[in-house]
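Cont'd.
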Amino acid sequence: QKEVEQDPGPLSVPEGAIVSLNCTYSNSAFQYFMWYRQYSRKGPELLMYTYSSGNKEDGRFTAQVDKSSKYISLFIRDSQPSDSATYLCAMSDGYSSASKIIFGSGTRLSIRP
Amino acid sequence: DGGITQSPKYLFRKEGQNVTLSCEQNLNHDAMYWYRQDPGQGLRLIYYSQIVNDFQKGDIAEGYSVSREKKESFPLTVTSAQKNPTAFYLCASQEGGTDTQYFGPGTRLTVL
């Protein structure tokens, strides 16, 4: 079993829809959670960073962490064609100065105009 | 502009050749990482370095080598011992005190 599971998609939704992207994990020691966006043939860029449980909002993006269920989500409101990309979740236990980050395999998202 | 640069963007290698991928950062980050990304797969850690003159193997280090002579630079050599090197290679640096990593634009390596 992988430490981090993420549905690869592809996920296709119409412009303006609310998008929900999810990851599950097995290591209860994870306490730092991140979402990255990766456009085709580019490096990933950090979208959201959260510590422990709860919600964090940044513009149209909301990150949600449920440590009791070992489940994290990224919601995108008012989705735009420019949101079409692969979204990677990532997490770590943060117990060392350069602790290893475990990445999900990514969900490919397509927003239809 | 602060950031991470990787060169070249595209690299072609003949079988049996060693090639070196460049990674430079001006973010003043101590930790740097090399990942490999294959289609449909997540990022797999090749090597990482927490400080100058020190580095550790990641999950798939076989066939790769690195050096860390300067804080700003972390080059990766793909040796002829790497049996399936065709992939997208990503370099990242990590902000101290957090687990936030910042990525370069990547190098796509193709073996001819």
